Amino acid sequence: MGLPLQGFYDVDFNKIIKGLPEKFIDNLNQLGGVSEFIKCEMHNPFAIINPETVKLVCQEMLLENNVDVLLHTIAADVQKTDDRITGVFIENKSGRQLVEGKVFIDCSGDGDIACRSGVPFVMGRESDHNTQASTLMFRLDNVNIQKLTEMVLENPNEYDLPEILPRIQFTYNKLHILVGLKNRIRKAQEDGINNIPWDRVCYITCLDNNAVYINMVHVDGKDATTGDGLTEIEMKSRSQISLIHKVLKTYIPGFEHSIFTQSAAWTGIRETRHILGDYILSIEDIEEGKIQATSIVVGGYPIDIHYASQKEQYEKLDFKKIKAYGIPYGCFLPRNIKNLLVAGRCISGTHQAMASARVMGTCMGMGQAVGVAAALAIAKNCEPRELEVELIRQGIRELGGYI
Ligand SMILES: Cc1cc2nc3c(=O)[nH]c(=O)nc-3n(C[C@H](O)[C@H](O)[C@H](O)COP(=O)(O)OP(=O)(O)OC[C@H]3O[C@@H](n4cnc5c(N)ncnc54)[C@H](O)[C@@H]3O)c2cc1C
Q1: Number of the ligand 1 atom closest to the C-alpha atom of 345
Q2: Are 244 and 87 a contacting pair, CB within 8 Å?
Q3: pLDDT value of position 160
């Protein structure tokens, strides 16, 4: 809900995600549903979207391309013969059905299909399997953003987050992401308000005036790949909203008269399973800015960790800018299964590496790349793993993709 599109540009403001994701943005633009890419010293350039326009444009693009769509449907299990998937069991109001296919792509975020097929995975962080905190986004209307930005510009020390220069962030951009004002949260804590879920204020402006999306709910320690875990996350998230709203109203200039108008359809999950593939994207790959000849997507968004434990988030460095890096094809090829590909935040990468590669622009680039690979494997009647990577790279370039 209202999350800005990130990952399309690297730290030097070069565009690294192109092709179909660009077409998606062009279509949004035609309906006035997206801003220009806004330069940001912290997050690299990002674009602000109208979530309702996004829903429509996604649907139109699927229809234009003759995709068979099934909404309200969950992929529940797989049918396998040896190390090949022969079908996926889906469930919806019609009951249980089997969808057969030659090549399958798991874009479930959690790697559900890979997991059901017996692909090994690591849950969250390698050392203790904790996952990044989850967040239910919510919207506040009637916010006086000008009052807040003027306060910050007049008192830069108030901004209190060293990674970002408030003057650059606000002077030129009415649309912005604000991450900071830690001292205001500290003040609320000193006044006895306990259990504030995050140590900073974080909001994203809307395309409409005077409304913001709040990214401050934090729920940790629950397994979002289970029914029980997800339910608990969702309910805990919802109960944090009123406290956060109260803190904003009391301690942040401009929020005094804000009104809570909407929460997202469900809590956003930052991290669950990292499937194990032929290659594991590592923090070293990312920090060195390695672009290997087998790369099929280029990432460049900073390493951005919302720690699972509140204590850690107060003590550790959780944000680091990096250069552009390549994501090798092997990260999309799950071990043990021949005809399965994965794309999105569950690809084969470590906790720290995926803290960069998890953003939407990068995930869209992955979808495009893996779609090309699946189509090529079917056309050539071979396994995805047997494809020459250069052929996939060529196919991505033919779609206008950047590699
Ligand atoms: C709170 C929060 C804030 C974020 N902020 C930003 C931001 O500002 N900018 C940015 O670019 N990124 C942001 N991200 C990261 C980004 O949104 C996600 O990491 C990214 O969308 C992941 O893409 P994905 O395709 O892997 O998964 P998703 O986008 O989650 O898509 C997975 C889809 O699969 C469906 N699904 C799941 N399981 C099944 C199943 N078994 N069968 C059928 N369907 C299934 C889900 O319903 C969903 O539609 C944020 C994430 C969170 C949680």
Answers
A1: 26
A2: no
A3: 67
Q: What is the CB-side half-sphere exposure of residue 210 using CA atoms within 13 A?
A: 9
What does the domain layout of the chain look like in residue ranges?
102-126+273-398, 133-263
84, 338 contact by CB (below 8 A)? yes
Beta pairing class for 177-180 and 84-92: unpaired
Average pLDDT over residues 202-215: 92
How would you list the strands of the sheet with 212-214, edge to edge?
177-180, 201-205, 212-214, 138-141, 259-263
Q: Whose CA is nearest to atom 36 of ligand 1?
A: 108
Task: Characterise 129 by phi-psi region: left (phi > 0), alpha (psi -120 to 50), beta (else).
Answer: left
From the list 79, 84, 81, the residue with the least C-alpha distance to 338 is 84
Hey, which of 1, 3, 74 would you mutate to test ligand 1's pocket, going by the most ligand atoms within 8 Å of its Cβ?
Answer: 3
CA-to-CA distance for 64 and 211, rounded, in angstroms? 33
Please tell me the residue having the least CA distance from ligand 1 atom 29: 109
CA-based angle 371:375:378, to the nearest 5?
140
Q: Is the pLDDT of residue 298 over 80?
A: yes
Of 34-43, 70-79, 85-94, the one with minimum mean pLDDT is 34-43
Residue type present at position 14? N
In degrees and rounded to multiples of 5, residue 64 shows phi and psi of -60, -30
Amino acid at 258: S
The tens digit of pLDDT for each residue in 276-286 reads 999 999 999 99
Task: Quote the CA–CA distance of 289 and 325 in Å, as a whole number.
Answer: 4
Give ligand 1 pocket residues (Cβ under 6 A): 3-7, 74-75, 107-110, 112, 135, 137, 215, 268-270, 344-345, 358-361, 363
What pTM value is reported for the model? Answer: 0.96
Q: Whose CA is nearest to atom 13 of ligand 1?
A: 359
CA nearest to 202, candidates 402, 2, 403 = 2
